[in-house]
């Protein structure tokens, strides 16, 4: 028996690939397996090759596998594009409709199953995804009752007749392939899982859930890949908590609405990707100048312009930090796991109000859309901190005076009131202003206001601003990265360790203000520093050089073809640089 296995389904977009993967992985999750998914899809609604890959394990995993055990193919293109990943002895389950063939040199077993024909016999070709998933499930020798339960959950709302038809499709696909194979494949039998069902979600869902837990009650946003699932989740869930989602006409309206709602006292957020973030930049400056709390999620994707809307990249770092004109206080954080996506949203809302600043939470496409198992979430640990928001009565104002909304204080954070509070009247404007908010061009006031705004975040550090995965004194190589790459790096490190290469690994989770004092000791002790990132110009490496130095130690490992790093790629790059 084996402890892990990788499974992939491929076909044309709109052909049922996504639903097949969803039911297959849901059933595996019911059995208690750990899962890690990767979606390859086109930036169009229908047509174009798409595939979903699921890694299945009895132990926690956080990376895409290098190879492939089972490929389910709805067309020849899926075989041609993906067969190269098959390990020797792998399996292809393909629709007999297109007379499938394996590329030359591929050492795999091919099972041609009349997937479409069986589905049509049952009434509609739409059920071919159930025939295909039933066939691949049967080869693993897993209990069919669990799979049928997942089918019931998927189609139950359509009535018992539809459920029975789909279960029959599963049975027919299963029986056909088992007759061809002579029973379940012994070499693909998985060790039993622990039977404990895990949370299984994408990063976007975790961030949306974290927003609700943080007290967010309004999301204003415009749909964009790969952020749209955040809207879709909150559209269903926020009304249950007295909140709502507003789809605005564009990203400029989305961010300004969020600023206005936060000013009114409602915890509000928006979410977008690189192109939308670019449109928000002026308004982010308004949030910084007026010291209005604001939370933005940026789900990084391939750029520039429309770029690669459905592909992996980590190239917004410079824009996140330097995109606004002028100089404002802000916080830029980057979660690296599903769990961090949840907890970081709570911290983002708290810090946005404590410091009265815009907070940008930056993920990458793989973390945003890659569905994976994660630990149960600790709701009891959640604490809400609204900072210096005054909720009691205010003292009467002196004649002809207003509330000092932008009062100079020792920590740089001024008292904040909600609109309509008695004696809380003040002026709000995007131009430079005095302590009461009145426009001011006084040179001394300007300098004091700039120092006040910028000074309040100098020592701001989030929880685990630099996450240490492995401390290796005097490591041959210290690998520094961000976002979704952590699990991939850890698998590469295991292989490097077997070769006698000492490695350390840290993830930078706070991009701005940069946590130099926390990262510097790790750089100092390492012989060589490899900064691994999904962009073409080494933006994270440049940030490290700018804030800390060690130019002579730093080596870039870059990937910008739209796909995430594989463990073998990280291993090879580090071996060559050692």
What does this structure look like?
This protein is an alpha/beta fold. It contains 18 helices and 20 strands. The protein has a seven-stranded mixed β-sheet, sandwiched between helices. A six-stranded mixed β-sheet has the order 2-3-1-4-5-6, sandwiched between helices. Helix 1 packs across helix 5 (144-155), helix 3 crosses helix 4 and helix 5 (144-155) runs antiparallel to helix 6 (160-181).
Radius of gyration: 26 Å
Report the principal-axis shape: globular
- The counted number of beta strands is 20
- Global structural class: alpha/beta
Spans of 5+ residues with little confidence (pLDDT < 50)? none
Distinct helical segment count: 18
User: How much beta, percentage-wise?
Assistant: 15-25%
Mean pLDDT: 96
Can you give the helix content as a percent range? 25-40%
Distance between the termini: 36 Å
- Order of adjacent strands in the largest pleated sheet: 9-8-10-11-13-12-18
**Largest beta-sheet characterization:** 7 strands, mixed
Compile the SSE list and pairings:
Blueprint: E1 4-12, H1 17-31, E2 34-40, E3 49-57, E4 68-73, H2 76-82, E5 86-95, E6 108-113, H3 115-121, H4 128-140, H5 144-155, H6 160-181, E7 199-201, H7 203-213, E8 218-221, H8 228-237, E9 244-247, H9 251-263, E10 268-272, H10 274-290, E11 294-300, H11 317-322, E12 331-333, H12 338-355, E13 358-364, H13 365-369, E14 372-374, H14 443-455, E15 466-470, E16 477-481, H15 486-498, E17 503-508, E18 510-512, H16 516-525, E19 529-533, H17 539-547, E20 554-558, H18 567-577
Parallel strand pairs: 1-4, 4-5, 5-6, 8-9, 8-10, 10-11, 11-13, 12-13, 16-17, 16-19, 19-20
Antiparallel strand pairs: 1-3, 2-3, 7-14, 12-18, 15-17
